[in-house]
Every structure is written in C-alpha cells, then in structure tokens.
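Open question from group meeting: does this chain pack into something compact, or does most of it stay loose? Before anyone orders reagents, we agreed to write out a predicted structure and look at it together. Recording both the input and the output here so the notebook holds the full record.
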Amino acid sequence: MTHTAEHEGTPIKRILVGLDASTHSLAALQAAAALASDLQAELHGLFVEDVNLLRAAALPMSRELQLPFGRPAKMNPAAMRRQLQAQAQRARQALSATCRRYRIEWTFQVLEGVVPSTVLREAAQADLLCLGTASRPVMQRPKIGSTAQAAATRANRSVLLISQGAKIEPPVVIAHDGSPAADRALPLACQLGRMAGGLLTVLVRPAPSRSSDRVQQVLAQRLEGENLAVRYRELAGEEVTSLIEDIRTERAGIVVVSRALLDPDEIHRLLDTIDCPALLVH
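Structure tokens returned:
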C-alpha cells in the first residue's frame, strides 16, 4: 500500500504560494508545484499589490531613483500601479508555465492590501502555505523577510519557506520529541522523504516523560513500511543552538519541525541561520 500524507490523516488538497515574480518566490513556486503534483493537490497563486507602496507613491515628498543615471524623480502612483500589474502578470505566466509542466490544476488571484496580513488571511483557505524568503546582499547568509517572518510564527497553516537557488533535496531532517505536535509533522516529513530520494533523518529530542531511546522505538514502529531509509540522531540538548548544529552536521536538504516545539524567537533564529528550506508544521 502506498503511504501518503493524506492517508496518515494530514490531507493537503490546496497549496497557496505567494508570488511576486522575484527569484525567491519562483523557488517557492517550483517547490509548491512539485508537492502539489506528488499530493495531487491544487496550486493557488497569490499576488498582493502592496498598498503601502501605493500610498508611498502618492506622498508629495516621495522620490525614486531612475536608472541608469540614478536621478531622483517624483514617484507616480499610476506608474507604481502599472509596475505592480506587470509583476502580477509575470507571476501569473510563471505559475501557468510551471503548472502546465507538472500537469496540475491551478488558480491565480491578485489582491490589494498589506502583504503579510493579506497572505495570512488567504492562507486560512489553504492546507499549506509556500513562500520564498528575502535575502541580504550577496556573500551574506539568507534572512527571511517580513512576510515570511509573519507566516513562520502566526500562520494557522503549515508553512514551507524556501530561498533563491534552493530546492527540496535529501536528506529530509525532522526534529521529534515524541509529542503529539511532533507526530503531526511526521507524515509530511515522510512524504518529502519519498520525494527526495527516500532518506529521512530523525533528530530525537528527549521529552520529560520519555527517554530518547523510547521515542526512537516508538518512531521506528511508526515508520516501518514507509519505504524510507531512516537514520536517528539524539539531539545534544534542548536549546535551538543544538538543533541548528545538528541540522548543519546532517547537511539537511530540508528541515521539518513542528512549530509547537519552538518559541517565536527560536523559529526566527533557526530560519535566519540555516541554509536549507524549512517546513514549519502547524
């Protein structure tokens, strides 16, 4: 029998991907499409016309630098809206081409609003939210932007975050402490593991009521028959520092962790430090 996330009680039928035509959102689109294809889910693209940009363009003192000479010029609200509409059209074309390649159903929507709050509101209508991250200048580590930060800690759905140039690769690494919250993340980790070469690494964190050996025994029973090569590693400590160090040591292709295992500051630190995609399970 083929195991799927749906079979395990975590149905994903609608994936929302935030698009802005940037390289980061295009990386998110590729990952979301691959998941949608594997899960036989529908992919919904969302482009948000940033109301803050439109408001800023209308202010009398607002200026923009015109290339190639860098001359300041007054911002034009109508021109700003045209730019956003052009970006939305490029995002739609990318979505259409990608979904055609993966042969999956898709829809696309353009909304005006504050980007983080609009994305979070629309995520409530999906089973999984997929977003690209922002980054610092070249030669510095990735840093998540405001929309990804908000989604990582406040979305009421699971969130997949991925940056420019990244893709879902083996091994899939999941943190697990034997709790029901961690159990909710396991089916998705297995799904990703099968998509990414069948390799799954479980970072076992001891729980107050269970030793790491006991957690591992229970997980081994649950994962039997999942057609995965599973490796277990005991976390050195309960601090997020230990989790980050082990993720690096394992050279994770993607990290899966229940959001309930970390507080918001720990989530931000994790995402701001690791180099691979992360799936935060609600």
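Observations to bring back to the group:
The chain has two domains: 14-52+80-162, 172-281.
Confidence is low (pLDDT under 50) at residues 1-9, 65-70, 135-142.
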